[in-house]
């Protein structure tokens, strides 16, 4: 079961946009509002992140908290989130790689810890969420569209 509980999920997306623009959409005081979250906040001073959704959760308000681990401007943003027992269940890393003046690849790596196979649906929901997030970000970055 150990290999199942410690696997890293990776998601990639290529954005037709300069690095600075992609970075600004993924990292800032308002987080992923307006294209993915509903009231997200990133507090660089305290290192805290607050997540809030309702448009993607059929009107049910879903909230969570996290803690920033590292920020390397225009390169890397990592954090713990998904509050669980006395800590967090998921470690996430966003990597930003320019491939030209007008193109950037974003890689999301998520290590969501689960106890056993009965908790596999937690990993599946995270995988679904990151895929959904990347699609919504691409529409927003490249075309200014908010699809939720």
Report on the architecture of this protein.
The chain is α+β, with helices and mostly antiparallel strands and 148 residues long. The chain has 3 helices and 7 strands; from the N terminus they run αβαββββββα. The protein has helices spanning 2-5, 19-26, 120-143; strands at residues 9-15, 41-43, 48-53, 62-72, 76-84, 87-100, 103-112. It has a 7-stranded antiparallel sheet with strand order 1-7-6-5-4-3-2. Strand 6 and strand 7 (103-112) form a beta hairpin.
Defining key terms:
148 residues, alpha+beta, 24% helix, 41% strand
Summarize the topology.
Blueprint: H1 2-5, E1 9-15, H2 19-26, E2 41-43, E3 48-53, E4 62-72, E5 76-84, E6 87-100, E7 103-112, H3 120-143
Antiparallel strand pairs: 1-7, 2-3, 3-4, 4-5, 5-6, 6-7
Shape: globular
**What is the quaternary state of this protein?**
single chain
Task: Give the terminus-to-terminus CA distance.
Answer: 37 Å
Residue share in helix: 10-25%
Q: What is the spatial order of strands in the main beta sheet?
A: 1-7-6-5-4-3-2
What ranges have pLDDT less than 50 throughout 5 or more consecutive residues? none
- The radius of gyration computed from the alpha-carbon positions, rounded to a whole number of angstroms, is 15 Å
- Name the helix and strand elements from N-terminus to C-terminus, one letter apiece: HEHEEEEEEH
Overall pLDDT: 92
What is the helix tally? 3
Number of distinct beta strands: 7
How many strands, which pairing sense, and closed or not: the largest β-sheet?
Answer: 7 strands, antiparallel
Strand content: 35-45%
**Helix/sheet category:** alpha+beta
């Amino acid at each position: 079961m150990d290999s199942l509980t410690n696997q890293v999920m990776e998601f990639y997306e290529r954005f037709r946009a300069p690095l600075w623009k992609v970075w600004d959409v993924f990292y800032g005081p308002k987080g992923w509002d307006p294209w993915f979250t509903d009231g997200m906040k990133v507090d660089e001073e305290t290192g805290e992140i607050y997540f809030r959704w309702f448009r993607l959760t059929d009107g049910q308000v879903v909230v969570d908290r996290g803690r920033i681990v590292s920020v390397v401007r225009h390169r890397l943003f990592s954090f713990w989130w998904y509050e669980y027992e006395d800590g967090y269940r998921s470690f996430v890393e966003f990597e930003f790689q320019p491939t030209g003046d007008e193109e950037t690849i974003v890689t999301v790596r998520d290590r969501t810890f689960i106890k056993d196979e009965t908790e596999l649906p937690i990993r599946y929901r995270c995988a679904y969420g990151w895929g959904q997030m990347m699609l919504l970000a691409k529409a927003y970055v490249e075309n200014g569209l908010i699809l939720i």
